[in-house]
Specification:
With 433 residues, this protein is of the alpha/beta class. It has 12 helices and 19 strands.
Length: 433
């Protein structure tokens, strides 16, 4: 039984967390109940098409708001809760990654959480363009005096604490547009999270992160790359090519509408032409009143294969440029809706020269059959990200509306408080100071 505010009868130790994956082709809302002892239980899912984004960036506010509202309504109806706070995903070619170092004196001779916070603040204190903001400060390793390769320095003795981090930045306008879309739906944004980071949380194991792995999230408008080496994130980048480019190629090559091209891609598409038998046929709908016609399925694969090869070739070049190719012993994990094409893993292994598998969300309970697919990885990952922030705070929050996560863990989404909160005390405070 659930109460109107979304809490169960034994709700003293549980909290509702909602992940909102705003993609180029779809909006997916995942509702889960987080319990410190019982883990993450999926309660509801809502997925609807979206036309308001272009290559991961909001291009039409009204269309995006409509899709978000439909996805949230569907998810909260299924879950039987009222959604007021969400963790939103962000992507797009505007996302960039760069390295930085920080150093701080250890107060008291023993590393405390406060020392870690200070060294991370020092690492993020680098010049950033006026139109950009820092989304994440991702530590790769810590050093205490002359000892390096430390994952968790808290409790260690020393005089000087250092850190190597990856700074993920995004265009301020893009992040604020995501927040504004959610606000217009009556939602509060607890945090804005890089989508491939969320996908990695859902599909990777600790062992894969430890020995080195690449997460390739092929969505509708972009292909996101995230590299893990020695348990930490070593690189993040975005390629402005995705599943929509494949659909456009099919529509032009077979002279069929975009909607029918997308349907053919999903139902009959194959990324590797030699996996298709010569005698297989498909029916291609006509455009502009022309009658449907029969054609060989191999023709469809011959259109898809060059584009997929291009995507994998660019991914390999990006990985080679980082110098980390030889350190990815666990290979590649594919996520995103576009990887559902038949033959993607086999083709990826040929081009990338590494083991490739399809990433499915793990570590969850409940109605898992509704999120069992690579297209749900980002939504589930956002829920797991939010759950980590809640548990890191030492207690589970009451009610659906979330309290902001602790500053040391939260992505620094620098939103104008006056714009989000409106006038009143916050407006007066900003004007005064």
């Amino acid at each position: 039984m659930r109460l109107p505010n979304g809490m169960s009868v034994a709700a003293s130790q549980s909290e509702i967390v909602v992940g909102l994956d705003i993609g180029t082709t779809k909006v997916c809302a995942v509702v889960a109940e987080v319990d410190k002892t019982d883990g993450i239980t999926i309660l509801g899912v809502g997925m609807v098409p979206c036309r308001g984004l272009r290559k991961g960036i909001v291009a039409n506010i009204d269309w995006t708001v409509r899709s978000i509202r439909e996805a949230i309504d569907s998810a909260q109806t299924m879950a039987g809760v009222e959604i007021r706070t969400i963790y939103a995903g962000i992507g797009g070619s505007h996302v960039r990654s760069s390295g930085s170092d920080g150093i701080a004196a250890i107060s008291g001779g023993e590393v405390t959480q406060r020392d870690v916070e200070r060294v991370l603040e020092g690492a993020r204190a680098i010049p950033v363009d006026a139109d950009r903001q820092i989304l994440h400060v991702l530590p790769r390793e810590y050093t205490v005096d002359s000892q390096d390769g430390i994952r968790d320095p808290i409790g260690m003795s020393g005089v000087r604490l250092g850190v190597k981090v990856n700074l993920v930045t995004a265009a301020t306008s893009c992040a604020q547009n995501v927040i504004r879309c959610a606000e217009r739906c009556g939602l509060a944004v607890a945090d804005v999270v890089l989508q491939p980071l969320a996908s990695a949380e859902a599909v990777l194991s600790d062992d894969e992160k430890e020995i080195g792995v690449a997460v390739i999230d092929i969505g509708g408008g972009t292909t996101d790359i995230l590299l893990y080496v020695d348990g930490g994130i070593a690189h993040a980048s975005v390629i402005p090519v995705g599943g929509n480019n494949i659909t456009s190629d099919i529509a032009a090559g077979l002279r069929t509408p975009m909607a029918e091209a997308d349907r053919l891609k999903r139902l009959s598409g194959c990324a590797l032409g030699r996996m298709v038998a010569d005698d297989e046929e498909i029916e291609v709908p006509g455009v502009g009143g022309h009658l449907p016609r029969k054609t060989a399925r191999r023709v469809l694969s011959d259109i898809i294969e060059p584009r997929v090869e291009e995507i994998f070739a660019v991914v390999r070049k990006r990985i080679e440029d980082t110098g980390l190719l030889e350190q990815l012993s666990a290979g590649v994990v594919l996520t995103g809706g576009a990887v559902l094409l038949q033959g993607m893993c086999e083709f990826g292994e040929e081009v990338l020269g590494m083991p490739v598998r399809t990433g499915m969300p793990t570590g969850i309970k409940g109605i898992t059959q509704l999120v069992h697919g690579p297209e749900y990885a980002a939504g589930v990952g956002l829920v797991k990200y939010g759950a980590q922030l809640i548990c890191a705070d030492g207690s589970l929050m009451q009610g659906v509306a979330s309290v902001p996560p602790p500053p040391r863990m939260r992505a620094q989404v620098e939103v104008d408080i006056a714009e989000v909160k409106g006038s009143g005390f916050w407006g007066w405070l900003k004007a005064a100071f």
